[in-house]
């Protein structure tokens, strides 16, 4: 059987949710946008570019003369920080709150656009004093505090590319990223608050700089006040240097293709890649998609994205998209269960959050903690809910809508990647009749489809590989310092790679997907995670969703383990909901449940109940580590895990022999 047939539609989903009439009537973007973009894709993006303020208006839209190396708006010039900050102040919105900061210990701070302009200007002057120039790289290793956004914008303001590394990555992980980018400066903090206590950040940097000769200074934000080792020759306190700077700084226009940032992918599958994003196209798509998909009304909405700034979601949908659009947003430093499991809902109630953007992993955790927790808070301000990071299981989608969205809010399931820079596939909240678990439709101006092994587009009802068939403004420009890896990773699998004709260049996303009978897209997880059982391709995502649709299961991770008879056998690790208990009967029940939902072929051979799953800092399950366990191997590289003790915990919960 070809993958084309067997990947198809194991999971049936009949539920539909139309947009609320009121929202649809006042939506920023209507169905017309699809038609307009279809008519002339480049004219559509040229129009979206005019959402921004350009110092020199571009006359070119796309230069695809040297594919797959794209240039967008190449003769235009603009300053990203000016677009995210100054222009809102100039337009009379200086008093609007840009960031409602909520610290984990309960401290809070409201920063207006006028204040943000002063902060960013002072930081830009400080970077200049430290010798940072246009074209340099700056590494950022900070907790979720406003200075993280200020630091990124200050870099953008002077044309230095930032490379944000998750606060919490090891010294080794930081060092390899700093070395790869030849960063001149590292911006960090003494520490940050996580799980109710201050955790130190600077020691990792102190260790990392020993092997990073390009680093001239370490700029240190005082967040926790904890004791911090100090090297006078390198270390500089953020408050000391910024306090003495002028609040005046003239932003220099940058070419649209000037590097804005490098961001290393989360490393779910292997060695992190330094993804390079540039200025004009990136900001155009980050701004447009935030406006379209969240229907942002800057005068009245309060937006909250719960991602970490060290993940691309934090770049595009905490810093650049929302600020370019003049949004008021919440920024939260800590974890969702500190000091109690209702913290998120308390924050939504406190600030009257209207737009929430979070990840399936968080939603499944909330399901596990129980429905009664969000029920204690007033969540009636919410009007749109977003999801990103992994396929959202239909049952998690339903829970999100019912228990957080009051059974009324649209959910936008947004598919995109570090590489795409901004959202690519998502429902539009005022247009799309949503299907639980499906990202559904490429956004206006985006071209995506599903192909089989040979690269032929599959018909509706078929499954295979997700590809993007036209360049898009916020696409990665290359892998930092490695054009060949850029070509090999993304363009050689399904692109001709030899012919310069535009249509021959097709971007391979690395994700499996299917098209349902309506042509809507369903993401099936990474291609590497697809299992081959007795000659059938089965997606881990679908088996996980089937498990999560059982009332006792909150979260599931499924892997294919090598099996002598079936090629691969399905092994599942499940976390139970609050009150459920693990026993032999439950395991039989779960196996039968999967067989009923998906068919007997998808019945897991092994199901283990665990209390945690291995995840990256961006909340993605690292299936390769579970595959190591299921196949009885020593567990591989765990450096990008959020919590490196999880693998020991899981192993201790399993019987010694598999
Ligand atoms: P690496 O490429 O180093 O393994 P990563 O892919 O985890 O890291 P990201 O760029 O943060 O790093 O994640 C993008 C991936 O996340 C997508 O390729 C897809 O697998 C998954 N993803 C993101 N959003 C969605 C979504 N809405 N539905 C399904 N999958 C999603
Ligand atoms: Mg990836």
TrEMBL record:
Annotated positions binding Mg(2+): 548, 550, 553
Residue positions where N6-acetyllysine is found in the record: 620
Location of the AMP-dependent synthetase/ligase domain: 91-472
Reaction(s) this enzyme catalyzes, per UniProt: acetate + ATP + CoA = acetyl-CoA + AMP + diphosphate
InterPro entries: Ac_CoA_lig, ACAS_N, AMP-bd_C, AMP-bd_C_sf, AMP-binding_CS, AMP-dep_synth/lig_dom, ANL_N_sf
Enzyme Commission number(s) from the entry: 6.2.1.1
EC top class, as a word: ligase
Taxonomic superkingdom: Bacteria
One of the record's GO molecular function terms: acetate-CoA ligase activity
Keywords (A to Z) from UniProt: Acetylation, ATP-binding, Ligase, Magnesium, Metal-binding, Nucleotide-binding
Domain (AMP-binding enzyme C-terminal): residue spans on this chain: 542-620
Domain Acetyl-coenzyme A synthetase N-terminal positions: 31-84
Cofactor dependence: Mg(2+)
Pfam family membership, one: AMP-binding
Binding site for ATP: 389-391, 413-418, 511, 526
Family listed: Belongs to the ATP-dependent AMP-binding enzyme family.
PANTHER family: ACETYL-COENZYME A SYNTHETASE, ACETYL-COENZYME A SYNTHETASE 1
Function: Catalyzes the conversion of acetate into acetyl-CoA (AcCoA), an essential intermediate at the junction of anabolic and catabolic pathways. AcsA undergoes a two-step reaction. In the first half reaction, AcsA combines acetate with ATP to form acetyl-adenylate (AcAMP) intermediate. In the second half reaction, it can then transfer the acetyl group from AcAMP to the sulfhydryl group of CoA, forming the product AcCoA.
NCBIfam families recorded: Ac_CoA_lig_AcsA, PRK00174.1
UniProt-recorded name of the protein: Acetyl-coenzyme A synthetase
Protein's gene: acs
